[in-house]
Write a structure and sequence with these properties.
Layout: E1 6-10, H1 18-26, H2 29-34, E2 36-41, H3 43-53, E3 58-62, E4 74-79, H4 95-113, E5 119-122, H5 127-132, H6 140-147, E6 154-159, E7 162-166, H7 173-178, H8 182-198, E8 205-209, H9 224-238, E9 242-247, H10 249-257, E10 263-266, H11 269-280, E11 281-284, E12 289-293, E13 296-300, E14 306-309, H12 326-339
């Protein structure tokens, strides 16, 4: 690789595990073998994460990307100086932490739009803390859409060969059903195709889920498939897109996991999230903890690249140094792959 992409990593909520998994990820030599990572956040919060995790790494606090060293063993931190360590409480909802997390996300977006970095990767934020700080967003996706002035976007979740995009996400189930419309389904099918191409899949096979049990059973269990989803699939096929469906949701994800489809179009949040987390999240009952949390969240349709961990702030683990960095490692790998296309 002649030119490694610069990846801006927002630290996430400093009261959560974001800083800890960031330093653990950058303690891996292989991270520097594929990219030039830059943490965006508060240098003191990152310094405390090193204390918590017991990692012996240096910090290079900068106020400009050009001053980063990008050397393994030294963490480059775009220092926003926005965390009062005397007030920071791990595992607690906090307006200060919400503000710091929001400002880190806003900064990586700005740096990417200015093309000072090649892609963005986001650490976990807490929605309650963000809103306490006066920033009324339901998640990262909506923040990115707002600051990049993007209207047609969607979320893609990925774990190994299973990839899922969503027609709707953070809305009630009742509203999610109302959002299943031909125009939106077609847009998401197109976004799914484009995402796969950015990952090097030239002609992706797209499986489109039904909304109702048995994909409506020819109208017996609802007409959304007949009136909205099938017309969208037909329109996609007319554009040369290899879209199949509507496939009954109870079998679609197993088929995708088995290799029949490169990506799945889910109709609403839980329809797509549950199968991804079944395969990516592993709970150890004996140890009473998550043994592994793996998965990547990518926002499609943006003018910049954004991938993220597929988990939250894990306040119960914050400050203990035990959180797994695996999801962040994979998020960076996805960002690099997309930046190099």
């Amino acid at each position: 690789m002649t030119k490694k992409p610069i990846i801006g990593i927002s630290m996430g909520d400093p009261s959560g595990i974001g800083p800890e998994i960031a330093v653990k990820t950058l303690a891996r030599r292989e991270t520097y073998e594929i990219c030039r990572p830059l943490i965006v956040g508060d240098a003191n919060a990152i310094r405390d994460a090193l204390r918590i995790t017991g990692l012996d790494l240096k910090i290079n606090a900068v106020s400009a990307v050009k001053d980063a060293l990008f050397q393994f063993g030294t963490l480059d931190v775009y220092d926003l100086k926005n965390v009062d360590m005397g007030k920071l409480q791990y595992g607690k909802v906090s307006a200060m932490s919400g503000r710091a997390a929001f400002e880190a996300v806003k900064k990586v977006i700005e740096l990417a739009l200015k093309k000072e970095i090649d892609a963005t990767v986001t650490g976990p934020i807490n929605k309650e803390s963000i809103n306490l700080a006066g920033h009324h967003y339901s998640g990262h996706t909506e923040i990115y859409a707002d600051f990049t002035h993007t209207q047609d976007y969607t979320m893609m979740l990925a774990h190994e060969n299973l990839r899922v995009v969503h027609v709707s996400t953070h809305v009630s189930l009742r509203e999610a059903c109302e959002r299943v419309r031909k125009e939106r389904v077609l847009k998401v099918i197109k976004l799914a195709r484009d995402a796969c191409r950015k990952l090097g899949i030239a002609e992706p096979r797209i499986g489109v889920a039904g909304l109702n049990p048995h994909a409506g059973e020819s109208g017996l269990f609802g007409r959304e498939e007949i009136d909205e989803i099938i017309p969208a699939i037909q329109a996609a096929k007319a554009l040369g897109i290899d879209a199949d469906g509507p496939v009954p949701p109870d079998s679609l994800f197993s088929k995708a996991r088995g290799g029949l489809y490169d990506i799945v179009v889910a109709m609403y949040h839980d329809q797509g999230h549950i199968p991804l987390k079944v395969v990516g999240f592993n709970w150890d009952e004996e140890r009473q903890r998550w043994e592994s949390i793996s998965g990547v969240n990518v926002t499609l349709g943006l003018p910049i690249i954004r991938s993220s961990v597929d988990h939250g702030t894990a306040f119960g683990k914050a400050g203990k140094g035990t959180a797994s960095e695996l999801s962040l490692v994979h998020a960076i790998e996805y960002a690099v792959k997309m930046a190099l296309q």
